[in-house]
Design brief:
By secondary structure, the protein is α/β, with parallel strands linked by helices. It folds into two domains: 217 residues, Alanine racemase (TIM Barrel, Alpha-Beta Barrel); 127 residues, Beta Barrel (Lyase, Ornithine Decarboxylase, Chain A, domain 1). 29% of the residues lie in helices and 23% in strands. Helix 7 packs across helix 8. The longest helix is centred in the middle third of the chain and has 23 residues. The chain starts with 8 loop residues before the first strand and ends with a strand. The relative contact order is 0.14.
Length: 377
């Protein structure tokens, strides 16, 4: 429990990590490995606490985007395999080897630098080849993959542990996108076969992000890489929600700190964009866009107080915003306010994302570090 007693805070419901992993296991079966994405501080949920809970449940790998993220986990005492999703700078290779990280590789120069540093430190490092089958971000071209695999297997101090790719539209129900993902899966299989044709074991095959875990079971292969579904959300809100009962892990909340009755015609907040349509009670909440409560929620979002929704009134400020409580109210100063979370009546990060024109990933990632995190077991 944090010693910071600020009214605005986040509660992380760790039991929902277990629940969501159980949902994933139901979708993929018992014989698949799981690599959980804990990059970006576990999408704002807290990488150390989420990683420890996921490892206790039984996941096989953790995954981060940057070397400092991985070092943070290592220095917190986490010894589990950590995959590095992004390409590191040459200056970071020494740390990749020192901290026993497992990098994605996509070209021979990068492989050679890692190999030379592994030899220098007298350590053995596992590598995963990333194939670009259509994401267009990082990855070796399919026709060059076998040669890259051969370089790794013929080199000292490095080992080919896995081969993977990534899907840009696996969460889409649009037929063109479904075909695109199916073609990626087909190309991945063909490329893996070129590795096998060289007499090389490709190791762990993994391609499925959250969308593919849910919608493309033929992409599950040996391991899956859940991201947003681990934290309780479907990657696309148009997906069939009956597939799995994911539960949001993050609850963003605050309190009413000031109440006032205003008369009809009174304007509220910057720009005077909201004017009271009648005599009404206004509640002030000490959270704003500096905390991650987006300014685009101004006069558009709702919060939950005592089991009832109330609308945001006027522009969200940097550190505060107001809600319209109506002409009569039972709301009191210091009542809890749920901004989003797992409660059925409350907004969730998907609803917030729809209002602001983004996705739940960004909503949870954007909760500022000045907001304390409490971890509920």
């Amino acid at each position: 429990m944090s010693t910071n007693r600020r009214a605005t805070r986040v509660t992380i419901h760790l039991k929902n990590i277990n629940h969501n992993l159980n949902c994933i296991k139901t979708l993929i079966g018992d014989n698949k490995k799981i690599c959980v994405a804990v990059k970006a501080d576990a999408y704002g949920h807290g990488a150390v606490n989420v990683s420890k809970r996921a490892l206790e449940w039984g996941v096989d790998f953790l995954a981060v985007a940057t070397v400092p993220e991985a070092i943070f986990l290592r220095e917190a005492g986490i010894s589990a395999p950590i995959i590095l999703f992004s390409i590191a700078l040459n200056a970071e290779i020494q740390q990749i080897v020192k901290y026993d990280l497992t990098p994605f590789v996509a070209d021979s120069d990068y492989v050679k630098i890692i190999r030379n540093e592994a030899i220098n430190q007298n350590k053995n490092i596992n590598l995963h080849i990333k194939i670009d089958t259509g994401m267009g971000r990082i990855g070796v071209e399919p026709h060059k993959t076998a040669a890259l695999a051969k370089l790794i297997t013929e080199s000292e101090n490095i080992k080919l542990e896995g081969v993977c790719t990534h899907f840009p539209v696996s969460d889409s129900s649009v037929q063109e996108d479904i075909r695109f993902t199916e073609n990626q899966i087909k190309l991945f299989k063909e490329t893996v076969n070129t590795i096998k044709a060289e007499g090389i074991d490709p190791g762990i095959l993994h391609t499925a992000n959250s969308g593919a875990i849910i919608a493309h079971p033929d992409a599950h292969f040996d391991m899956v890489r859940p991201g947003i579904c681990l934290y309780g959300y479907y990657p696309d809100q148009k997906m069939d929600k009956t597939t799995a009962d994911f539960k949001p892990v993050m609850e963003f909340k605050s309190k009413i700190v000031f109440l006032k009755k205003v008369t009809k015609g009174t304007s509220i907040s910057y720009g005077r964009t909201w004017v009271a349509p009648e005599d009404t009670w206004i509640g002030t909440i000490p959270v704003g866009y500096a905390d991650g409560y987006n300014r685009l929620l101004s006069s558009r979002a709702f919060v939950l107080i005592q089991g009832k929704r109330y609308p945001v009134a006027g522009r969200v400020c940097m550190d505060q915003f107001m809600v319209n409580l109506g002409p009569e109210t039972d709301v009191n100063v210091f009542d809890d306010v749920i901004l989003f979370g797992p409660a059925p009546e409350a907004p969730d990060a998907s609803e917030i994302g729809e209002i602001t024109g983004t996705i739940p990933y960004e909503v949870t990632c954007n909760i500022n570090k000045r907001v304390p995190r409490d971890y509920k077991m």
